[in-house]
Specification:
Number of strands of chain A: 21
Order of helices and strands of chain A: EEEHHEEEHEEEEEEHEEEEEEHEHEE
Largest interface: A-B, 54 and 54 residues
Low-confidence stretches of chain A: none
Oligomer: homodimer
Structural class of chain A: alpha+beta
Helix content of chain A: 10-25%
Mean pLDDT of chain A: 96
Distance between the termini of chain A: 37 Å
Number of helices of chain A: 6
């Protein structure tokens, strides 16, 4: 089942079903007016949504054309946005770029940060660029939306809490990071609003590609029209989404609608390319002594998409342009 | 105007007006079913709420007895919980306790962290204690609830975005902090769910005590029945709430219902006492070479309250017991 949130002039938009081929959509206000309302009452809403999705797929109900430009983020605002950093190659590269050591517990204790979740960008919203000196970067990631998840959930018991899967562009202001982390309280201003894919899908929609809390598909990042990365999101995700759930529930519980991110998808093989410019710049520094690729500037475009084994877009495309403010 | 959220079996509770003396309350579902709904539509809701509050105060409408035990947090879940650390004496003491230096920009660049906001504790909810070795501590703070606040808001323009003021117990697991901060991503597991006062009040309700984005009243922390702190929340708040808004809006905007905290209220004068056990332990270390006061254990109680110049409780009392889990 695929779900989207359509713009309707309200803060939280209108929940809609989307066909598997992303061609048709169908508002479902009679089942749940918003994505959050569906998640808050998933036990009731899910079977109704699935039945309606079957009707849409079978042609028993006609949808209208689906246009990602008419989408807000699946959750235009969320009660939490927790982002991991589960691809260790990314951690190693990015820390090298800022002359910081990876933590000693890199392989055993997941890195996560709490991001701002009250204002999230839609899949085709511009990325605001206030000051080019801040070092604007994209980060292509996978994320899940959780149902109500109790404190003390173990990784082995976490599967039922994953309601939906989607993509994220975790927008980052690289040059604000060093001073901010030096203060000791983690990221804040360096992580402005992130953008999410047009569609969020139930894990079963991914078929065999959803295994052990990982999405075993490739994540394509197209920067200014050129393929920058075609990274494999499954094998090198050191901590699965289940592992991340086991970590974040150590001391507290989560409400339905909490978004949990994978961190930047990153592969050791350079042939796979990159999912953020910081990695590209680090590779250039290793090879030539200094970074060559600049950070993003006004007018730049970034497209992020995941294709299934048959080459069909699973979540639709995050497709953003950097806009000077 | 004073507002509370009453338990009604739903996730977000029922919005109610509370009389100035905290004796009577009046549900206002016809104006806005929940606190978030009122904040989302404040321009419409505020005058209606104020008119109803006038009716309650004048006895034209009868309220029912107000019982803080029947309260959820004013926002049982919020879209963001951003906590500052605006009392520099606290930063200096707590960093000393963990042998960490205050940041070089302590006096010019506010410290803030992004906390979890999806599950917030009510004013009389137990504080869960999973493992006493985690070092459970309270932190008595003031917080404001923001309306929609644009990116780039300057401190001098921030006043209109402060909708409500309340108190917080920012529960902290001290012994989880060093390892967590060593990873470089800030607090996460070390900051479990925080608890909020029974009542949130509009700034005008504070009269002359609300000046320059600070609450000039004393915050009382009573630990296991003994007065631990009677700290002045105004004068030593180095960064006002307006300054904090100016900082947090540097790179992003905030949705209505965002909670912004002051950080632990702390005074240089030892005579004022403490608003968290970590400060007490640091003072003991300075004086005697080692901390004497243990962190919180099962059965401990903490009460947090602010009195006005006439000695009347402004926000009601946070009154929690530590419960082993």
């Amino acid at each position: 089942m695929k779900l989207a949130t359509l713009r309707n002039g309200t803060r939280d938009g209108a929940l809609a079903l989307v066909s598997a081929d992303l061609r048709a959509c169908l508002p479902v206000a009679d089942i749940a007016p918003t994505m959050q309302a569906a998640l808050d009452d998933w036990g009731r809403a899910e079977p109704l949504l699935r039945a309606r999705a079957d009707d849409l797929a079978a042609g028993r109900i006609a949808g209208s054309p689906f246009d990602p430009k008419g989408c807000l983020s699946p959750l235009p605002r969320a009660y939490e946005w927790v982002d991991g950093s589960a691809y260790l190659n990314h951690v190693r590269l990015v820390r090298k770029a800022r002359n910081a050591e990876p933590p000693a517990t890199l392989e055993t204790d997941p890195l996560v940060y709490q991001g701002g979740s009250g204002v999230l960008l839609g899949p085709t919203d511009d990325i605001p660029l206030v000051d080019p000196a801040w070092g604007l970067d994209f980060e292509s990631e996978v994320a899940v939306i959780l149902g109500d998840t109790p404190r003390g959930t173990r990784a082995g018991d976490a599967a039922p809490y994953v309601r939906l899967v989607m993509l994220v562009n975790d927008v980052t202001l690289r040059n604000l990071i060093p001073d901010e982390l030096a203060k000791g309280f983690g990221f804040f201003c360096s992580k402005p609003a992130s953008a999410f894919s047009p569609v969020a899908v139930t894990p079963d929609e991914l078929g065999e590609a959803w295994r052990n809390g990982r999405v075993h598909l490739r994540l394509r990042s197209v920067y200014n029209g050129a393929l920058a990365g075609d990274t494999e999101a499954g094998a090198e995700m050191h901590f699965s989404f289940y592992d991340l759930i086991g970590h974040i529930t150590k001391t507290r519980a989560y409400t339905a609608g909490t978004i949990l991110g994978s961190g930047t998808v990153s592969n050791v093989s350079r042939a796979r390319g990159i999912s953020c410019l910081a990695e590209q710049r680090t590779i250039e520094t290793i090879d030539t002594g200094k970074p060559v690729t600049p950070f993003m500037k006004a007018g730049d475009t970034i497209a992020i998409e995941m294709l299934d084994a048959q080459g069909r877009s699973v979540f639709g495309r995050i497709e953003q342009t950097v806009a000077a403010q």
